[in-house]
Amino acid sequence: MLTLSGRVIRHSGHPGQKLLRLSSAPDLPAVLRSQHALLVEAGQQLQDGFGYYLTVAGSQLPMPERGPWAQVGEEFFYLRAGDIIRISDGHIRTLFRANSRHNALFLTERCDNYCLMCSQPPKDVDDLWMLEQAKDLVRMLPQWASALGITGGEPTLHGDGLIELLSLIKSRLPHTSIHILSNGRRFSDPAFAQSYAAVKHPNLMVGIPVYADDPALHDYIVQAKGAFDETIRGILNLKQRNQRVEIRVVLHKLTIGRLHYLAEFIARNLLFVDQVALMGLEITGFTRANLDKLWIDPADYKDQLSRAVEVLTSYGIRALVYNHPLCLVNPDVEPHYVKSISDWKNEYAAECAPCVRRSECGGFFSSGIAHRYSPSIRAFASIN
Question: Which CATH code, of 2.20.25.90, 3.40.50.920, 3.50.50.60, 3.20.20.70, is assigned to 104-371?
Fold first, then answer.
């Protein structure tokens, strides 16, 4: 697991909040230096004019006499040229990693659902600044960025602000794959769905959760009355406007019992969605408080998972299986298996060390390793 935010160890002259792209080139043209933080390395001849000078703990390197500088802990060992950071009041946060496909814009801590297994418990706060920061970050991102997520909270609570952000992304990053995580409820408003569709980003998809074919059960899981109806109407409005939609199903004790019924509901009523992701549980946020209510060993629902995949694929729907160790799915599921856990929160158990298929396996969320994971995991001794 990588540390994305923390306090700096020591610093001098913090210039308020700044977004800065990291550079390892001390001879960067002077006109560009103010928007960059120089990663200081041994033997470098430091030049003035950089917006920041940064070292990682363990290096005894000279700091410039002029200009703000900071030393960060060894947990930030991964920082490289091209990464983008935010420096603010003695804190550092990594916002973009140039060598990762798992970058995301975090837009808000607010949400109109209150899901029992929410990994990012919502807060009722004014966080418009997060949307504005996201716009600033988009203006700094390289056009070659292959993928970018948009998440929260519930991003659609920004309303027209989200549409403005998507329009900016289209103009700045037209070739980047964009994936939004949303509960889908705002799209039940045809006018908002139309504004979203009018952006016409060529590679945009929204992932929307549907947790049960039973509206009452879905509403209970998301702790919001009427959410099921709004979510389904949102999906219908999006597909009516030819927008790409992924249905997401988090698998836990409350959803697994009706999983095949949900697969049949999707196949009969939402056949036109682009894909369905069946996802393992992340043990963080509200999940920890509700763990006894939610936890089920993935080894105990392997057959239900296989049955759901079979139903979906028999109707021609693309089925994907996320967030599961490879050894905890049946062989018939493997063609649909995706190594999906974001690299910054991905780990493997000690039992995985001798596994010959580890490179194919998605492993675990770090929170799962820390709290609970299946005792049925096993290391593959051979490829076949």
Answer: 3.20.20.70
Q: What is the reported pTM?
A: 0.93
Residue type, 48: D
Q: Residues, the chain, total?
A: 384
Cα 77–Cα 79–Cα 83 angle in degrees, nearest 5: 170
How far is residue 154 CA from its own chain's centroid? Answer: 13
Averaged pLDDT in 10-residue chunks for the chain of 384 residues = 86 73 92 91 78 78 68 91 90 94 96 96 94 97 96 97 98 96 98 98 97 98 98 98 98 97 98 97 94 96 98 98 96 96 89 93 87 91 75
| CA distance to 8, 69, 71, per residue, from 75 (Å) | 11, 18, 12
Q: How crowded is the C-beta side of 148, counted as CA atoms within 13 Å?
A: 29
**DSSP code per residue over 237-265:** HHHHTT-EEEEEEE-SHHHHTTHHHHHHH
- Spatial neighbors of 318 by CB under 8 A, at least 6 apart, are 274, 275, 276, 312
Each domain of the chain, given as residue ranges in start order, spans: 5-96, 104-371
